[in-house]
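U., I forgot to send this yesterday:
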Amino acid sequence: VGFDFDMKEVIEGLEESIAGETPSLNETECIQAISIGQEENFQKLSIKNLEEAESFIKETSKKNGILEVEKDKLYYIIETEGTGAAVEAHHSPTIRYTGNFLNGELLGSSEGKDEKISLEETLPGLAKGVVGMKEGEKRTLYIHPDLAYGTSNYCPPNSLLIFNVEVIKSNTASKEVDTTASVEETSLNETMEEVVR
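Result:
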């Protein structure tokens, strides 16, 4: 997380160093000052993002067609009804997805490919939002940061996530051979870690 520099002080520090003068902060103090500044900005961004997330969730929960999974935390809209078998909590469904931040910036995507995920290992909000989906169903999920990455280092702190998900197969057995050879074997969390690095 970045933070604002006082350029005048930076220039003065560089001039002092060039002139051979003793800097007002030694290296350890400088590192501590940078760390404090980063932490302060992280906390400010965390508070701002949480306020935006909660405001968005509150407004979204009032819309027509919105369905609740967990009050004030997880909502969804069915974009296309499914007709196949339904996803259960212990399943490893094959899905296609796109995940975005509230500002529309892309978090990650299966890029139109089928991807098998384990509901026991993925984001809690995504797992809860996929349970009950039928094969062929498409949903838009609105996930509060408490059911996403929270303040972890994967993405900006307290980011609300919006996922567009399509269930291709409700449960893909681990030993099952995929004849289409299009199912990605990476986990969604590994994909997200790569995207936000």
